[in-house]
Specification:
alpha/beta; Quinone Oxidoreductase, Chain A, domain 1; Rossmann fold; 2 domains; eight-stranded mixed β-sheet; 20 strands
Length: 399
């Protein structure tokens, strides 16, 4: 797409756009007021700066963390405090089309389809220099005289429940032509699963992997583990329909803890216990099950975590030389690796996408995700596919 320099106002000098993608002066965006209060408003289009691009959002998925932010505020941090009543737009699992390039940006072109990861660390703290930008020491310091350069869209900067958002170029990944908008929003989810397995060592081929919890991250952890060559891959879950999706994504064995002793069954399958366990449920029961089912010298990843302190069998962890890892987000460029797998159709992430709504229907979409209406797993808000007049949108679109 041919590019030209434009300026909607003098502050846009040096920003590159293209006549094929004219920019409006304003956009629609949902903003957070009091807890659980979101309002659709009109905002100015944000200007991309150095090393940034303006993304026209085409689709955004709803994550459980979005629901936590709406209720509790955390882990969002805006201007050093809670995100309420600050004009903040949540939403972080989005994809779209590049509409403008900040000064000096030549790594992408206007018109490129991209999906995004959340975090662009400050680039200067110890953790960022190690590649652990999701653990940036300057998280939330991006305002006024406290601007250290950190960005986390939908957490510390405006996110994707809007028509446009600004992203650092390090957070953007090209989307292949054959991939749908809805599937592209799932790259962050797959990237989180990939990050967990990366932190466990990455070399899981021929090793046993147990995934506890058939939520979005758990189901894609099954898919990623299988794609990496793990054998067997075991999924533990109580919802039979989700367990079936797990089978389609590569689970060799599925265990329902309501009908079987999970730890005993894992030891029966593996002999001495699992080599790797990824806990995507994050309850006191599952954390302890993970310890009890892991082989000596094995590794556990906490991809979810209890919200309160739990009684934990630390002694078993120590005497059996079991390694415990926590992950924060989708670090170490795991989203790029996840996209590589998805682009090659190593697994079908779209199996977890269950419902679609329009931007105007975001409150309904959030309710479906929170209450798991119609057994919603991954709910996506689409901005490029307007529904036909008379559509029964309250029920969403089953995929």
């Amino acid at each position: 797409m041919s590019a030209t320099e434009t300026k909607i106002n003098p502050q846009w000098e040096g920003v590159t756009t293209a006549p094929e993608m004219p920019l409006p002066q304003t956009m629609k965006a949902w903003v957070l007021g009091d807890p659980e209060e979101i309002t659709l408003v009109t905002k100015e289009i944000p200007r991309p700066g150095r090393a940034e691009a303006l993304v026209r959002i085409d689709a955004v998925a709803i994550c459980a963390t979005d629901l936590e932010i709406l209720t509790y505020g955390t882990p969002a941090l805006i201007e050093g405090g809670a995100p309420f009543n600050k004009g903040f737009t949540p939403g972080h699992e989005y994809m779209g089309t590049i509409a403008a390039l900040g000064p000096g940006v030549d790594e992408f072109e206007v018109g490129d389809r991209v999906t995004v990861e959340i975090h662009a660390g400050c680039g200067q703290c110890k953790r960022c220099r190690m590649g652990m930008y999701t653990s940036c020491h300057n998280y939330g310091l991006n305002y006024g005289t406290q601007d250290k350069g950190h960005r986390a869209n939908g957490f510390t900067t405006n996110g994707g429940f809007a028509e446009y958002a600004v992203n650092n170029i390090n957070t953007m990944i090209r989307v292949p032509d054959h991939m749908s908008d809805e599937e592209a929003t799932l790259v962050v989810t797959a990237g989180t699963s990939m990050y967990g397995l990366t932190e466990l060592g990455g070399l899981v081929a021929g090793e046993s992997v147990v995934v506890i919890g058939p939520g979005p991250i758990g189901l894609l952890a099954v898919a990623v583990a299988k794609s990496l060559g793990a054998a067997p891959v075991v999924l533990v879950g109580t919802r039979d329909n989700r367990n079936q999706i797990g089978r389609e994504l590569g689970a060799d064995i599925v265990i329902n803890p309501n009908s079987e002793d999970v730890v005993a069954r894992i030891k029966e399958i593996t002999g001495k216990g699992a080599d790797y366990v990824v806990d995507c449920a994050g309850t006191e029961a599952t954390v302890n099950q993970a310890v009890q089912m892991t082989n000596r010298g094995g590794r556990i990843c906490l991809a979810a975590f209890p919200k309160t302190a739990v009684a934990f069998d630390l002694g078993a962890l120590a005497v059996n030389n079991i390694y415990l890892y926590g992950i924060r987000g989708e670090g170490r460029s795991a989203t790029h690796r996840a996209m590589a797998f998805m682009a090659e159709k190593r697994f079908d992430a779209s199996l977890i996408h269950t419902h679609t709504f329009s931007l105007e229907e975001l409150p309904t979409a959030l309710r479906y995700a929170r209450e798991r209406i119609d057994d919603a797993i991954k709910v996506v808000v689409s901005l490029r596919q307007p529904k036909p007049e008379g559509d029964q949108s309250d029920k969403g679109v089953q995929q």
